[in-house]
Design brief:
Elements: H1 2-10, E1 18-21, E2 24-27, H2 33-52, E3 58-61, E4 65-68, E5 71-73, E6 77-80, E7 90-91, E8 97-98, E9 103-108, H3 118-125, E10 130-135, E11 140-147, E12 150-153, E13 161-163, E14 171-173, H4 174-178, H5 182-193, H6 196-208
Parallel strand pairs: 4-8, 9-10
Antiparallel strand pairs: 1-2, 3-6, 4-5, 6-9, 7-8, 10-11, 11-12, 13-14
Helix pairs in contact: 2-5
Length: 210
Amino acid sequence: MRAEFERRYLNHPEIKKAELLEGVVYMSSPVRIQEHSEPHFDLIVWLGAYKAATKGLRSGDNGTVKLDNKNEVQPDIFMYLPKAAGGQAEVGEDGYLQGAPEFIVEIAASSASYDMHVKKRVYARHRVREYLVVQMYEQKLDWFVWREGKYERLLSGEDGIWRSELFPGLWLNAAAFWNNDLATMLQTLQQGLTTPEHTTFASHLLASEN
């Protein structure tokens, strides 16, 4: 099934994004600036700053991820650990990511989007460790974490800051994000990057490469 999907996809270079989910093909609509493109950019900058301070992490933007014969996706943003550090995914001989990345971000129009339903089920089954869904219409974040065989919602702190469990120091200031305040988002992230937990994590990740 996936082979046929790939064959048809490659034969239509005018199609920029198509995904195979549970054997069904989904194609994206044109991308609006405020509802997708700009928040997408800000989140990439945020994660890029984290990656720059955490040597060894791998990441991608709209890259093809092959999960199984019925599921081939193009997450908006993803980040993953190298195999030596316990990561699940790796780049295959064909240049595509094979296996589930540890962290995925999807920007969804609303809670009715397939990002919150079929895609969430697929990501859970393949043990994407953390899954952040940004619902633009509702201005709501859903950050799911894999705990004891299922997804549970990560809760923000009393200060409104979201803190990743898997990636120490990855802090997200939700209010700043919704206010298009990238500078404050990065200031909050910098606070996370100065914690002892991030220092320890970064050191272990670096050691795994040696």
